[in-house]
């Protein structure tokens, strides 16, 4: 699974990958992403998975900090 900055979903995938293998991890991670998407639509909230350190670096890069 590819992700530039990691995050909660990547950590979830990697944790499952060690225990269950690639195929089951992909399915479980896909299901998790669908659950997150459904919750976002239902509640109107945004998903925030960027780690604090990466967020601060990105804000500083654009001069917003």
Task: Please explain how this structure is put together.
This is Transposase, IS116/IS110/IS902 domain protein. It comes from Leptospira weilii str. UI 13098. With 65 residues, the chain is mostly helical. The chain has one domain (8-61). The chain has three helices and no strands. Helix 1 packs antiparallel against helix 2. It is flat, with a radius of gyration of 14 Å. The mean pLDDT is 86.
Question: How would you describe the shape?
Answer: flat
Question: What does the main sheet amount to?
Answer: none
Gyration radius from CA atoms, angstroms? 14 Å
- Helix and strand succession? HHH
Q: How much of the residues is beta strand, in percent? A: under 5%
* Share in helix: 55-70%
Protein name: Transposase, IS116/IS110/IS902 domain protein
Organism: Leptospira weilii str. UI 13098
């Amino acid at each position: 699974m590819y992700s530039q900055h990691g995050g909660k979903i990547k950590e979830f995938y990697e944790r499952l990958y060690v225990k269950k293998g690639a195929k089951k991890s992909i399915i479980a991670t896909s299901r998790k992403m669908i659950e997150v998407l459904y919750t976002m639509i239902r509640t109107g909230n945004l998903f925030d998975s960027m780690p604090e350190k990466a967020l601060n670096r990105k804000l500083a890069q654009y001069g917003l900090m």
